[in-house]
Specification:
Shape: globular
Pfam families: FdhE_C (PF24860), FdhE_central (PF24859), FdhE_N (PF04216)
Number of helices: 11
Helix content: 25-40%
CATH topology of the largest domain: FdhE-like fold
Subcellular location: Cytoplasm
CATH architecture of the largest domain: Alpha-Beta Complex
Strand content: 5-15%
Radius of gyration: 19 Å
GO cellular component, one term: cytosol
Family: Belongs to the FdhE family.
Function: Necessary for formate dehydrogenase activity.
CATH superfamily of the largest domain: FdhE-like domain
Largest sheet: 8 strands, mixed
Structural class: alpha+beta
Distance between the termini: 31 Å
Length: 327
């Protein structure tokens, strides 16, 4: 999500003491920008996030999937993304619960989104037999199987979902919840009891990002893996256990990291590790690359996952476009 640049007249009117707690997604531009970012990453155009040939092929495939997400948003009627009634939303907000929870029963319309995404990929699958086979398998799932797959994806379970199916199911859920989140009044959404889950839908964050521009300048936000909302969390605080005593940062090039250079490309992507809960989550810095996309950049920086994994840390949560728990 790229922040809108403010005009000079707007800057003076800002309350610079107020930190925006919640940044809701701009759903109709987010997926188009993410697909472009994935292709940049696949082409090794982003300093600090090296991508090998095998991963580049996967990133290009995911870029096509994200393109299909964007097309589904443009092509599906507005009622596909209908909101819960106002009373239901208000009741959740009053009790500091997510107004659009991913847990529980999902609106059946998400399956319409799923079908639209698969339809958009048919042209690409015509020249890729493996993709065509996966799409055929996904279409063969009945409603109960598909809903069970979605449950497993949201719970990050290794059982109940094929690793090649998971990104396509996750993509449909992302579109559904991102579009609905974009319709909320962010000022009314209340923080949850824990700041480690999305206040909009209750899902885990995929990564965190230091934003620039306007009142968000220099603040760290967690980006939701499901609805793409971003919520504020202070820096140097574990986004898994909220501890502060044993937080450290790892980058692919530790020598550059140690030098703390102002424009160090290695600081585009770092892993925030915690020696209290022994987990990590990546943190990306828009100050070093304006077009950072936490989900796309997390997907591309698997070299960093290998580095911190070998050091004994576990991922705090997965990336919906890659089934990390799968062999």
């Amino acid at each position: 999500m790229v922040q809108r640049l403010l005009e000079p007249g707007e800057i003076e009117t800002l309350d610079h003491t107020a930190i925006p707690r919640l940044l809701l997604p701009e759903a109709r531009s987010l997926f188009t920008a993410r697909a472009a970012r994935l292709r940049q990453l696949a082409n090794n155009q982003i300093k600090g996030i090296p991508v090998g040939e095998t991963l580049a092929g996967y990133l290009n495939m995911m870029a096509a999937l994200v393109d299909a997400q964007a097309t589904a948003i443009r092509s599906l009627p507005a009622d596909t993304f209908a909101m819960p009634d106002a009373a239901t939303i208000q009741l959740a907000i009053d009790h500091h619960m997510p107004p659009l929870p991913v847990s529980g029963q999902r609106p059946a319309m998400w399956r319409r989104v799923f079908d639209a995404i698969l339809d958009q990929l048919d042209a690409l699958a015509a020249g890729q037999p493996q993709l065509a086979a996966v799409l055929a398998e996904l279409r063969a799932l009945d409603t109960a199987q598909l809903e069970g797959c979605a449950d497993a994806v949201l719970a990050e379970l290794t059982e109940g979902v094929h690793p090649l199916h998971a990104p396509f199911v996750a993509a449909a859920i992302q579109v559904m919840w991102t579009m609905r989140a974009s319709q909320l009044d962010g000022r009314s959404v209340q923080p949850l009891v824990t700041n480690t889950l999305c206040p909009v839908c209750g899902a885990h964050p995929v990564a965190s990002v230091i934003r620039i521009g306007g009142q968000s300048q220099g603040y760290r936000y967690l980006q939701c893996s499901c609805c793409s909302s971003e919520w504020h969390m202070v820096r140097v605080k574990c986004s898994c256990c909220e501890g502060t005593a044993k937080v450290a940062y790892q980058s692919i090039d530790q020598e550059l990291e140690a030098e703390n250079k102002a424009n160090d490309p290695s600081k585009v992507a770092r892993a925030e590790t915690c020696d209290e809960c022994h987990t990590y989550r990546k943190i990306f810095n828009q100050e070093h690359d304006f077009y950072v996309d936490p989900l796309a950049d997390d997907l591309a920086s698997l070299a960093l996952d290998l580095l911190v994994g070998e050091a004994g840390y576990a991922r705090a949560s997965g990336n919906p476009l890659l089934w990390f728990n799968a062999e």
